[in-house]
Amino acid sequence: MTNNEVRIVEVGARDGLQNEVPVPLAAKQELVESLVDAGIKNIEVGSFVSPKWVPQMADSGALFQQLCRVDGVDYMALTPNLKGLQAAIDAKASEVAIFASASESFSQKNINCSIDESIQRFSEVMALAKQHNLPVRGYVSCVLGCPYEGEVELEAVARVAAQLYQLGCYQISLGDTIGVGTPDKAAAMVSAVAKQVPVEALALHFHDTYGQALANINACLPLGIRCFDSAVAGLGGCPYAAGASGNLATEDLLYMLHGQGYQTGIDLLAVAKAGDSICKTLGRSNGSKVAQAVLAKTNK
Ligand code: HMG
Ligand code: MG
């Protein structure tokens, strides 16, 4: 990758739809396939978690089975434990993600165990993933604040990120789960983590609850981060973080990055059309200002 190439991980079908009203399997399939047609190369398709905890993701296995896959695209899944990983292997996910938290309360609410217990659990997941040659991504939630504890210490973020990296995750995605960060704090957090994990192995996963995600990313680009997670049309939130609105909209991120001379290989208008279609299915308005603008132009 050259220095102006940016990797986007599209999380709308997972992080987005896990917190929306349930949609039919066919609509999920159409969403994933149209995003891949738009040039997305890394896409979270779903998660293998307890259907009692997140019923919206209960059909992830069926979705993986049904997808028409394109060579060179990573079809990713969240796997909290061995049971989830086995399901992801059976569904032929090409990459999986484990997810920890920098805050104890969020860890308990989200995955029903302490941070230390989660790391223990994830080491078993990593061992099985390694046997199957599956790349594993690691998430750290609550890197800029926790819905239950408020401020989160930078040392806690850096410690959990380093633990996941040492377990063998090829990349650590730092999640502002409730979108409370501001640019200087985001940059300080990245600098703290980068002392323990190489910056090339970091990604940012910012929810846009307070409308700060783009500004925060802009503050972190000069630090060398070249991978960002986003959700088409700004879908979603997190079921265990009340008030967390969707991730940063992919369309908004693409517009900013392309305008600043970065390359993503993704067609903004095609992403906006995919987002528009799923918003119609969900009966919700489009959470991306850029999508609204580019779609209004094409509808003239
Ligand atoms: P638990 O209840 O402690 O698990 O949940 P358990 O091992 O005691 O099992 C209880 C039941 O769940 C059993 O079924 C298991 O078989 C079943 P029962 O005998 O009662 O019928 N079970 C499973 N079923 C399907 N798939 C599995 C699985 N594991 C157990 N993998 C568990 C622990 C981790 C499973 C649960 O807490 C859970 O599913 N949590 C997931 C919550 C979640 O998906 N949160 C959203 C994703 S994270 C996120 O959005 C943040 C992120 O975007 C980054 C950011 O923004 O910060 C990534
Ligand atoms: Mg998230």
From TrEMBL:
The keyword Metal-binding applies. Keywords: Lyase, Metal-binding. Gene3D superfamilies: Aldolase class I. Pathway: Metabolic intermediate metabolism; (S)-3-hydroxy-3-methylglutaryl-CoA degradation; acetoacetate from (S)-3-hydroxy-3-methylglutaryl-CoA: step 1/1. Its EC number is 4.1.3.4. One of its GO terms (molecular function) is hydroxymethylglutaryl-CoA lyase activity. GO terms for biological process: ketone body biosynthetic process; L-leucine catabolic process. Residues 6-272 form the Pyruvate carboxyltransferase domain. It is an enzyme of class 4 (lyase). NCBIfam families: PRK05692.1. Belongs to the HMG-CoA lyase family. This is hydroxymethylglutaryl-CoA lyase.
